[in-house]
Amino acid sequence: MAGDRPERGTSVSTVLGRRLGGELLRMREARGMRQAQAAEALTASVPKVAKMERGLVPMRDPDIRALCHLYEMDDADTVGRLLGLAKLDRERRRAKGWWNEYPALRDMVEYVALEDAASAVRTWQQTIVPGLLQTADYARALAIGNGKWDDPAEVEPFVDSRLARQGRLVGDAPLQLRAVIHEGALRQLVGGRTVMRAQLSHLLEQAERPNIRLQVLPSSVGANPGMNCAFTIVSFDVSEAVDVVHMDTTSATVWLESESDATHHRWIFDRITRLGLAQRNSAEVIAGIRKEM
Question: Which residue in 257, 232, 253 sits closest to 242, CA to CA?
């Protein structure tokens, strides 16, 4: 499922809720049942079942078990996977995360909430440095340059929120980040030469962290599977939780939530990493570009 802005109920993030509700919807339709039959099994109303299937309300474990039994899909693996998704979704809905303190995040709130819960992120970027690896000056130059903010006073809170996200890269259980950046993004003079020199130095420093793997895709590669769009794959430390794919376009935030979409983008990412330079060679390229500036 993809859309400009997902509907919200009481959730911090509806991505996992939509994934869970979508699976229950497919199971019901595969049995040829109506929402009224599901509602009867739960002793609930039809509107509540509709909200559950659209991912707008948290789901209780007994309800999931009852629906799986009704749809004759109550094998341990299926039930366990759905219960795992529901648990993670409930945790996200209850979360009072730091991101709620930053109105400047706007449409990024849902993504940041998921990033905070994630165990790993894989990101492919063609034109900019990934947000988790940006310096304050680089992020500020991007915000000013793209003209997104109506009020200039909103730029600094946005920069602060971008830096706050980077807290996930440190600590006892740091986010595992694997980033591939096109060489062209490293040569783009965002903020000017001084800002870019500092940004490139920051990339080299961050690449030394054991939880960060940074690769450069050289321009000499030419055509590649990732040319159509940059994207990020978010993974969770819950075996039952499916990866979700996030993409930003000029007019919408797009979520790809099916297993087939996740598999396809993992394949694309793997292809890009094989075309990219090894970490050591990537660091040499970054250092070389910094020296040129």
Answer: 257
Q: Over the stretch 186-202, which tens digit does the pLDDT of each residue have?
A: 999 999 999 999 999 99
* Integer Cα distance of 165 and 133 in angstroms: 10
- Residue type for position 102: Y
pTM score, whole prediction: 0.75
Class of residue 11 by CB neighbours under 10 A (exposed 0-12, middle 13-18, buried 19+): buried
For 35, 36, 44, 51, 99, the CA distances from 48, given in Å and listed in that order, are 9, 10, 7, 5, 29
**67 vs 39: CA distance, rounded Å:** 9
Structural domains of the chain sorted by starting position, each given as residue range(s) with its CATH number in brackets: 15-94 (1.10.260.40), 103-292 (3.30.870)
CA separation (Å) from 20 to 92, 125, 149, 217?
14, 29, 35, 36
Query: Cα–Cα distance between 276 and 195 in angstroms, integer?
Result: 25
- C-alpha 37, offset from chain centre: 35
